[in-house]
């Protein structure tokens, strides 16, 4: 197929060359990309001048697409999230998070395309939840396995930032009603590989249900700090027309907010997954 894979580190991340995302994926290409994603958790593609329709078509080969309840979308493409610093307050991305864990069946993955990038700054970090879990001591792994945690939409989307107009407030209140707090396992088993990963994130996880509040707060602080250790991460410096595709089931990411007042415009398609176990 002419596809090549260049790992960016021993733990997470690889760059793919030889794929033209403007063309429909063949079954062989689909299977190759899927296996590469399972192996490296996040894949990067340079020089992909794709249209919104081509972006949607590529992502839809890997799952049904989610429509975000709060963020704006790209014109005529409700499946494409618009992340534009000139339009929306995107500070919630400048925190370690796993996408839409406020859903009962969170995302399988996301495909993020860079439309306009700052001259400097605006990198994104990804962390490998499997490597983070496996690096914990055996007693801590045993403690975590079997615990559950609450995930809440409102932790990253507070009213004061996303309900500032009557229209925005109505959309926000509907999103909050449609997405009440729910629980996921603290340690998730990947449905394809069977490997276990930490599945709590600073963006949406509010407490560990089986612990007292003080115990929960202390343990979550430890886990949030642990998963972001440099040896579990990869950092990507964006260029216009770059695309990243990550496995949302076992990764977290952090969009560094260090480029203001420059503008940054990204489009994201999010593929729905399965119920964590």
Please supply descriptive tags for the structure shown above.
single chain; 277 residues; eight-stranded mixed β-sheet; three-stranded antiparallel β-sheet; 7 helices
Task: Describe what this molecule looks like in 3D.
The protein has helices at 27-40, 52-60, 129-135, 138-144, 159-162, 166-178, 213-227; strands spanning 4-7, 14-17, 42-45, 73-74, 77-84, 107-116, 124-128, 148-151, 182-185, 187-189, 196-198, 205-208, 233-236, 243-247, 251-255, 265-272. The chain is globular and about 50 Å long. It is built from 7 helices and 16 strands. The strands form 4 sheets. An 8-stranded mixed sheet has the order 1-2-3-14-6-16-5-4, covered by helices on one side. Strands 13-7-15 form a 3-stranded antiparallel sheet. 25% of the residues lie in helices and 28% in strands. The chain is α+β, with helices and mostly antiparallel strands.
Outline of this structure?
The protein is of the alpha+beta class. The protein is 25% helix and 28% strand.
How are the SSEs placed, and which strands pair?
Blueprint: E1 4-7, E2 14-17, H1 27-40, E3 42-45, H2 52-60, E4 73-74, E5 77-84, E6 107-116, E7 124-128, H3 129-135, H4 138-144, E8 148-151, H5 159-162, H6 166-178, E9 182-185, E10 187-189, E11 196-198, E12 205-208, H7 213-227, E13 233-236, E14 243-247, E15 251-255, E16 265-272
Parallel strand pairs: 2-3
Antiparallel strand pairs: 1-2, 3-14, 4-5, 5-16, 6-14, 6-16, 7-13, 7-15, 8-9, 8-12, 10-11
Pfam families: TauD
Domain TauD/TfdA-like: 6-270
Cofactor: Fe(2+)
């Amino acid at each position: 197929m002419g596809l090549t894979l260049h790992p960016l580190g021993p733990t997470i991340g690889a760059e793919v060359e030889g794929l033209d995302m403007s063309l429909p994926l063949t079954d062989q290409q689909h299977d190759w990309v899927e296996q590469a994603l399972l192996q490296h958790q996040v894949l990067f593609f340079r020089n992909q001048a794709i249209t919104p329709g081509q972006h949607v078509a590529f992502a839809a080969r890997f799952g049904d697409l989610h429509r975000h309840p709060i963020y704006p979308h790209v014109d005529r493409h409700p499946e494409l999230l618009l992340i534009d610093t000139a339009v929306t307050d995107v500070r919630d991305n400048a925190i370690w998070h796993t996408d839409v864990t406020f859903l009962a069946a969170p995302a399988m993955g996301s495909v993020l395309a860079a439309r306009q990038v700052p001259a400097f700054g605006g990198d994104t970090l990804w962390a490998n939840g499997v490597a983070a879990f496996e690096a914990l001591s055996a007693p801590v792994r045993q403690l975590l396995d079997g615990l559950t945690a609450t995930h809440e939409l409102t932790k990253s989307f507070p009213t004061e930032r996303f309900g500032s107009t009557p229209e925005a407030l109505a959309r926000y209140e509907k999103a909050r009603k449609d997405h009440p707090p729910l629980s996921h396992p603290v340690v998730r088993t990947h449905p394809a590989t069977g490997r276990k990963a930490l599945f709590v994130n600073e963006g949406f996880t509010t407490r560990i249900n089986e612990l007292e509040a003080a115990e929960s707060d202390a343990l979550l602080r430890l886990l949030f700090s642990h998963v972001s250790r440099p040896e579990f991460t990869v950092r990507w410096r964006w260029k216009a027309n770059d695309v990243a595709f990550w496995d949302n089931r076992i990764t977290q990411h952090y969009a560094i907010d260090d480029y203001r007042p420059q503008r940054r415009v990204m489009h994201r398609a999010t593929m729905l997954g399965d119920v964590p176990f």
